[in-house]
Input
Amino acid sequence: MNESILITGANIGLGKETARQLALKKETKKVILFCRNQAKAEAAKKDLEAQTGKKIFEIIIGDVSDANSVRKAVEKIKEPIDAVILNAGGMVGKTAAKLTPSGMNELAATNILGHVILVDELIKHDKLRKAVLYPSAEAVPGVKMLGMKPVAMKTSSVDEFAAVLDGTYFGNKFDVTQAYGYVKYVATMWMLSMARKYPELKFVVVSPGNTKGTLAPDNLPPAMKFMLKNFMMPIVFPLMGEMVHKLEVGAKRFVDGISDERYKSGVFYASKKGKLSGDMVDQSTFFAPLRNSTFQDNADKAVHRFIK
Ligand SMILES: NC(=O)c1ccc[n+]([C@@H]2O[C@H](COP(=O)([O-])OP(=O)(O)OC[C@H]3O[C@@H](n4cnc5c(N)ncnc54)[C@H](OP(=O)(O)O)[C@@H]3O)[C@@H](O)[C@H]2O)c1
Output
């Protein structure tokens, strides 16, 4: 039972809906909305209070792509937290390939850097009691019918993971839709490594699936955004079966992942092979690199090369 939960990127989309669903659970006493923008966070808090009738939301301001911002934010957390949902992220938009002061590009820094620091700092200061959930994506094992190839790294060495994080892996052709799957793979492998390092905590990786009603499509290249919003989401996906679902369903995957004992530490759960909705299954049953503990530890080492 999680009484207190911190969710990053909780002012909109899956993060906010997850906050709403968790607040309605009777055991929940506190939900911390970890957001980068004070005004958006205040608006979300007000709306969540109105929707749930609960005054259990607190705000912490922090930018997960900025190491110092996250460290300062953690100092404001006085009481230990039961569970953390590392939700902030996505494809970032036009600046995805731009390098941040950490040496990671913005795509990697947003999806990984601050989250690793957040978890490391919470553990170091004895402020994390039970569980961490990371949202990965079906882009990692790939979705053949959409032309999304599985992530295929040559060696999954520390150097190769580091090259994904600073973008050199992709050479001059940085395609954010491809890079996104690779960045989520690094984060997933870091989580699986953490699960072995901290067996007393639960580290679970969950894809929300292809979820309607978030701002995620807005960060896609323009042609893809147009296709997705006007053609794929409303017409094609609903005809294909188990390819898209509502915001409530995507967020419930996070709520279940963090609360339900059927979801185990050290496992990446997402849709069945080739699907983007429906039941969640252990992805390592058909995407073998997830089972390799050396690869997992290499991802952890690569991420920490960028954290001073
Ligand atoms: N939507 C899907 O179908 C889908 C599928 C697979 C995986 N996912 C994953 O699920 C997670 C949530 O996705 P979503 O679709 O709900 O995204 P979204 O609607 O775009 O919302 C993203 C949230 O993250 C916050 N955020 C972005 N960069 C941040 C930063 N540097 N520091 C702090 N907060 C930051 C945003 O804050 P602002 O409002 O301030 O920008 C917003 O609250 C992401 O990790 C995404 O990769 C989503």
Notes: The pocket of NAP is lined by residues 8-9, 11-15, 35-37, 40, 63-65, 87-90, 110, 135, 137, 207-208, 210-211, 214-216 (CB under 6 Å).
